[in-house]
Amino acid sequence: MPDDLLQRAREGDREAFAALVEPHRRELQLHCYRMLGSLQDAEDALQETLLSAWIGLSGFEGRSSVRTWLYRIATNRCLNVLRSSSRRPLPTAPLPVPAPEPYRSGEVLWLQPYPDVLLDGIPDQLPGPEARYESREAISLAFVTAVQLLPPNQRAVLLLRDVLGYRASETAELLGLTEAAVNSALARARSTMDAADRSTGVGGAEERELTDRFVEAFTAQDVDALVALMTSDAWVRMPPLPFEYHGTEAAHRFFTALAAHRRLIAAMVPVGANGQPAWGEYIRDPVTGGLHLIGVVVISIAGDRINEIVHFDTTVASYFGLPRTLDG
Description:
Sigma-70 family RNA polymerase sigma factor; RNA_pol_sigma-70-like; NTF2-like_dom_sf; Nuclear Transport Factor 2, Chain: A; RNA_pol_sigma_r3/r4-like; sigma factor activity
């Protein structure tokens, strides 16, 4: 059947082409997301990949699988984006409340969360046998953030080799590099990634208890209770705002300053993001009584504590099916 679809697609049958590439759409989007850190950029890159594949189908010689051919196109599209200066976000306004001095400026301002619902269509056999990372770790915010700090070629090599499980020779062919260059880039990328914190949570009932306590403290603006749930080296981040807070003392100062100027969170709607606990945050309008979305918060868990709280603005809401308003 795939050969028949390929032949029909080469003859200009758009429906055959759609059927040929559809089984790979979700995994290609996820690959683009890992490369770019932004779901919006990933979707754009995916559309460009499929258009390029349609236009260039006559040049596909069948020496590799359709899947591998699509990965070649997608990876190179993402590399083109990374080498362009146009993907970085425009400057954003500061927080509307006084905030303490951040630990450092944010390094990955374009980061966006990835809805768990988009992971459902990815084949179970992924990743390949030579992959170094388990699927859950390779989608976590911490992993994706660390990947964004790698140079473009190292990023591509790491994802193709250690996440997707392509062999060094296959990766070299996909990227138009020598095998020696691939191995060198991979060694440097692994060194950087090994130094990054990519802890995962305990799961199960313990994790549910921890997230329940987080929601309770977060909605009540109980700063002491919130900080008590965090590891001593926890991070608080707010992309695309360009600052980050590190450690419980800095987090306490930040949340204390914020609590004095914002209304209570009236509802937190659970969603899945990057295989991690996440919620849409809603405040109550004092006039209408309705609930208004103010952002999406995602937490990372290390052992039995929270080691990262990331707040995203409302631009990502549509990806999670979160309405801008809810009835009170």
